[in-house]
Input
Amino acid sequence: MYEKDGEKYFVVDSHMHYWQAGPETWVPGAEKYAKGWIECFHAYQGLAPAETHWPIEKFMSYTEDDLMKDVFEDGYVDVAVFQPTYLTEWYKDGFNTTERNAALGEKHPGRFIANTRWDPREGEDGLKKLAENVERYGSKGVKLYTAEWREGSRGWKLTDPGAYKYLDACRELGIVNIHVHKGPTIWPLDKDAFDVSDVDHAATDFPELNFIVEHVGLPRIEDFCFMATQEPNVYAGLSVVIGGLMHARPKFFAKVMGELLFWVGEDKMTFGSDYGIWEPKWQIEGFVDWDYPSDEFSDYPRVTTATKKKILGLNAAKLYGIDVPSECQLPAEAGTPAARDDSVGVSSESPAATLA
Amino acid sequence: MTSLVGSRTLLDALGEVRDPELDEPITTLGFVASVSLSSDGNAAVHLRLPTYFCAPNFAYLMVADAYDVVSTVEGVRRTEVVLDDHFAADAINEGVAARAGFVASFQGEAVDELDPLRRDFLRKAVLAGTDLVCRPLVDAGASPAALAAMTLGEVPDSPAVDRLRRRRAELGLPAGDRAPLLVDPASGAAVGDAAVPLHLRRARLTRTSLDANTGICRGMLRHRYGVEDDS
Output
C-alpha cells in the first residue's frame, strides 16, 4: 500500500517478471539473440531516473532478495502478477517461466499471482500443459507473447485457428485474463507485427474473457485505442507507458495518458511496473503526484485521486478477484472499478457512439 | 560537372529517407552511423537502429531506400549500405545489395513486398500531419464546419502544410490548392461537418502515438550508442 496526503492506494503490480538471463543461461548457437534480448530490455531501463539504473550484470541476474525488496519492501506493491515469457530457443531453462515464478510465489503466500502462458504452435501437448499449470498453480491469467520464435516460425496471431482452441480451453479451465504482448516479428514478416486487429477479433469472439493489451499496444497506441473503444472486454496495460515515458518524456506521457483516459477510460487501465525493467517505487510515487503539466491538456478527461486508485490497483484487483482492504476502497460515488457495463464503448457519450 | 561530392552530399541525400513508422528522416533520428565516399566513387553507409530487435520489415525499407538515394548521387559509382547490430542484418544487407526484394531476402518468411505496409504507415502520417496543421486553426477558433469547408490553399503556408501535401501526394490523395483540408486518408473523400470532431480526435491520437514512439526510440538509441539526444 502507498499512502500520500492521507489517501491510501492499494497497489497491484499487474505485469512484472522474475527472469534469469546471464550468459550461463544462453542456448549455445543462440547467444546473440539471448544477449540482444536482455540488452534491449536494459536499454528500456535507461528511460528511468538515473539513480534507479542497474549495471547489466545485476539486470541479467537479479535475485529473490532484490525482487522482494524492490517490489514489496520499497515498492509499495500489495500483490504482484507474474507474467511469464519463455523464449526457450534462446534461454536454456526459459527466460521467465511459470515454474520459476510459482516457486518464488510459494515462499511468499498472498504476495503473488502466478499467471501461465500458451503458444498455439505447441498443439495438443501445449493444451495438456496448460491444464496442468492451471491445476497446479491456480492460474487465472495467461501472458501471450506473439513474437516468440519457435522452430523456424517467427510468431503467430490470436486469430490463428490453433489459438482459438487455446482460448476455448481458457474458458473451460477458468482462465479469465488474457494479457497480450505484441513484438517485432510475426508470420508473415511483411505484415505489421504490432497490429492489434487480431486481439479485436478474439475479444469479440470471446466476450467472457478479458484482454489486457500490455504496453497499450505500443507502438500502435492509436490502433489499440480505436479497438478498445469498441470492445468492452479490452483493457490497457500501462507497463512501459509509466516506466518508459513518465520520467523520460513527460510531455508525451501526459498526452498518452490523456488519450487513454479519453478512448479507453480510467476503469479499464491497469498499472504494471514491468519489473525488473523498472522498479515500481518511483513509478508509483511519480504517478500519484502526477497531473497534466499545463492548460494545453484542458480538453482531456480530468485525473482524480479515484482515477489513480483504480489504475494503481483497484481495476486489477477486480480482474483477479483480490480482496481490497476497506480503507483503500473508493467511496460509492466514484464508480465501479473495471466495470464492463459502463465502458466507453457502450455509453452514448463515448467516441464509439459516433463511429459509423 | 564537378566530382567534388562528399559525405555532406550523401548525408543530404539520406535526409530524404524516412523511418516509415515514425515518419521522420533517418538522419535526424540518429540512424546514420557513418558515411564515406572514396575518390573513385565508392559510397559506404552504415545504419543503426534503437534495438537489436527492431521490426525487420521497417529496417529493410530504410536500408533499401538508403541504397536507392545514395546510388543516384552524382559521382557515386558503387554503393554499399550496411545495417549494423540487428538480428536480421545479414538477410537485409545481402538482400538489398542483391536488389532481391523482401520476399526473396526472407525466404519462406514473407509472402509479399512491403509497399502495402508502407502505404498503411503513410496514411498514419497523413492523419498525424492533419493534427499538426489543424491544431493551431482549432485553437484560433475554427469551427468543425469551417474546417470541413476549408481547402489546402486557404491554410496559411507552413512547413507542416507542405509536409502534409507531400504525404498526401505520395499516397495519390488530392494535394492541390483546391483540395479539401480534411480527407479520409484511405479513400481521399472529403470529411463532412458531422465527422470532423472524431476525425480530429483520431488525428491527434495518431500524432500522439507517433510522437511517443519516436520519443522512446530516441531514448533507446541514446542508451545503446551513447549518442546525444537533441530532441
Residues 147 and 181 of chain B are 7 Å apart (CA to CA).
